[in-house]
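MODEL INPUT / OUTPUT PAIR
PAIR INDEX: 1
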Amino acid sequence: MKHRARVLSADAPAILVQDYRRELKNAAEAARIPLQYGLGMALSRAAEHTEAVRTLTTLADARPGHVPFEVALAQALVAGGRHAEAAKRLAPLHETWP
């Protein structure tokens, strides 16, 4: 939730994208997944939807059913105009968490 709050409260998402990319270069392996999650959400807020979807898909596919990753990916898909794909990604979550 730390990265979600960071992204949602950022005044300049494009600068936050740069910050996340810099942090990822020097990150320990254990810190990479949360930073990639933050990067994906920041990319979406910065209207870089294709890269956001790519980043968040990698995370969501590595951990199927992980709610924060799936929801962030669905939000990026919707922001990029890909509503049907977002609904398809969220359908299994709805089955698990009605």
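PAIR INDEX: 2
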Amino acid sequence: MALAPALPPAPTAALPPAEPPDGMALKITGPSGATFTRKFATSHTLRDVLSAVHASGCRLDPSRSYKLMARFGVTVSDQLSTLDAAGVQRGAYNVTEC
């Protein structure tokens, strides 16, 4: 009986992906209230965003779950969902605990 493959490392343990020069800019406010702006490709996942938030100095607790939320509309909580599939577009978002 084959075992299911393990998920990639938690977002706080992974290095964020390279910032694409032609990516979409997201202004992200972390749980602590700290903000930063970074470009992401539409193929990046929520896990990639969380890794970038963590690497920016806003430490995320690996034992907790997080979601990406726009003020109106988009909410992403599936860490393996791409930004494109989730409907994320350039703009301001919050990272909060689920």
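PAIR 2 NOTE: Strands lie at 24-29, 35-40, 66-69, 75-76, 91-97.
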